[in-house]
Amino acid sequence: LFIMQAPIQIEPYGFVGFSGSYRFYDGVHHSWEGEGIVTKHFESERLFEFVGSVVLRWYSTPWRRYLGGSVAWGNGLSWMTEPSNVDISGSPSGLNPQRLLYFFMFEISLRPLGEVPWEGFIRIHHRSGVYGLVAPSGVGSNFICLGIRYRWNET
What is the pLDDT of residues 53-64, one digit of tens each? Predict the structure, then answer.
């Protein structure tokens, strides 16, 4: 399986984000959510990012007998207040950074069993041009994020 051709560069970078979501469909083992995220990027760049996405969250995880939590996958759009040079670092020269890019996320969340509203999560936060669909091919970035979440509807 061939997924990625570009070399991976790991650089120190930071952002802090806040999100809100709304479940618009609750199934037996899954839910569909709309999610909005606002992030403040710092370190090498000082800008804000706004994300809107649709998220499929699956609750029937292999560890459900021992821990609560979920696996989630989301798609949407990400808009930066300024073009981000991080999106073109490691890309072929001549590419211009773009404010609007495709957003993808994959997340695993864990919490104690029971009606506990707090959970921790690890998430891949991905921005890209979708192989030239919304921006030139090669533009994009990936961030590995750790976070905590409070779910008001779990209490």
Answer: 999 999 999 999
- Interacting residues of 25 by C-beta distance below 8 A, sequence separation 6+: 31, 32
Q: How far is CA 143 from CA 16, 31, 59, 83, 154, in A?
A: 12, 25, 24, 17, 28
DSSP string, 87-154: GTTTSPTTPPP-SEEEEEEEEEEEE-SSS--EEEEEEEEEEE-TTTTSS-TT-EEEEEEEEEEE-GGG
- Whether pTM > 0.90 for this model: the answer is no
Rounded distance between C-alpha atoms, residue 23 and residue 67, angstroms = 21
CA separation for the pair 81, 94 (Å, rounded) = 21
